Amino acid sequence: MTRPRLNATKRNWAVGVSLLAVLAAGPAVAAEEAKPEEAAAADLPSVLTSIPALAPVADVKKQLMDKGVILQLNYIGEVLGNPSGGMRQGAVYDGRVELAIDADMEKIAGWKGGLIHANGYWIQGAGLSRLYTGNILTVSNIEALPTVRLYELWFEQKAFDDRLGLKVGQIAADTEFFVSKYSALFINGTFGWPAFTGVNLPSGGPGYPFATPGVRVKLGSDSDPVNILAAVFDGDPAGQCGQDPQICNRYGTNFRLQDPPLAMQEVQYRYNQGKDGLAGTVKLGAFQNFGNFANLRYDTAGMALGSLASNGVPAVLKGDWGFYGVLDQQIWKESGASAALFLRAGAAPQDRNTVNFYIDGGLTFAGLVPGRPDDAFGVGLAYARVSDYARGFDFDANAPVLRRSEAALELTYQAQIVSGWTLQPDFQYIISPGGGVADAYGARVRDAAVLGLRSTINF
């Protein structure tokens, strides 16, 4: 009797998981010569320690932590507006409550190396990019449709002195892949999960506001000079429902497994991580989605999609892939003050990706203001190039303007009011919103100036 063949989606998932299994089998030899992992910080700054009336709450939180349950609650609220440029002018208020729970299974049940993590969001307000500026380098990293949403829900098992980690569950790629330590200061969303992946991958990929079922293997601890990450995710966190992906998976509970998978790999090298010297990290990574992608310029008959002779059905391309690199580098430190730079870049095929080249970078400074050691400020710049195929479609369709690129400049200052509470005035300048699209009069949408103020409270 002939055995049934696996369909393409199941076969690709099987290949990806098998590769992770092979990768997971090899760390025992290298672990003997690796450096021991340094203890992580027990807690984040909390406003509970700054307000005497909340001391009993802080005590309860400490008691739970001693028993292995770590609770984190934070609120981000911001006002953003574009007094000039964009599709139209206006202002919005965005808010997001995040609740995160970590359960240390060794303290709770004697299960060494086990950790359960869950976090979710209550998102409020309206997005400035969605309603006013119309840009692809999203103005705010908390912008999303209002909802209550599950984000991550996973179990991780560590072994070999924490030099092997296997994570299974609903996972977000933007917490570990393509991440810059220093770009986290900025408000613009592209400095987190960049437009390079957020625009090109189906439904934006497994980055905010989406996580998706997956498996991640990590070789090396945080104190080792070399780490290797590899993961397989469901390739489309929302699915193709003909609407906004955030409506298709509004609550983060679709738990999709039927889509062609997305594989990501990253090698990380850290140097000068001690007290002496200027610390740095270099990361090289790649992604591959095994699904089908539409040709951005040509139809199934080889005709230009934008022409009147086209049948309107894009040619089908098998798979998508891209490569990226990240550099984080301290450039100065003295007496508690420091300066650092970051640089990230990525490239992908032009025929199936709207953004085929991406780069961002910036400088951050901490502790420079006398008497304010916890303040930080920085300048960041991001650039997303619209691919020749996407621009060619505009040309074939006789669009009044042709998309070329979008860039964002951000200047920001984060001031600590008390421990656990910061205020952050912010200025952004968006060049060619939407990559250079036309307004209602056929002219290119004007560059947008964005002013904002963010308040972040950690409980």
Show the helix and strand layout.
Blueprint: H1 8-24, H2 27-31, H3 55-66, E1 69-84, E2 90-104, H4 105-109, E3 114-125, H5 128-133, E4 147-159, E5 164-171, H6 195-198, E6 212-219, E7 226-234, H7 245-248, E8 261-271, E9 280-299, E10 314-334, E11 337-347, E12 355-366, E13 376-386, H8 388-396, E14 405-418, E15 421-431, E16 448-458
Antiparallel strand pairs: 1-2, 1-16, 2-3, 3-4, 4-5, 5-6, 6-7, 7-8, 8-9, 9-10, 10-11, 11-12, 12-13, 13-14, 14-15, 15-16
Describe this structure in words.
The protein has 459 residues and is mainly beta. The chain has a single domain, classed as Porin (Beta Barrel), CATH 2.40.160.180. The chain has helices at 8-24, 27-31, 55-66, 105-109, 128-133, 195-198, 245-248, 388-396, and strands at residues 69-84, 90-104, 114-125, 147-159, 164-171, 212-219, 226-234, 261-271, 280-299, 314-334, 337-347, 355-366, 376-386, 405-418, 421-431, 448-458. It has a 16-stranded antiparallel beta barrel. This is Carbohydrate porin. GO terms for molecular function: porin activity. Keywords: Signal. Residues 1-30 form the signal peptide. One of its GO terms (biological process) is carbohydrate transport.
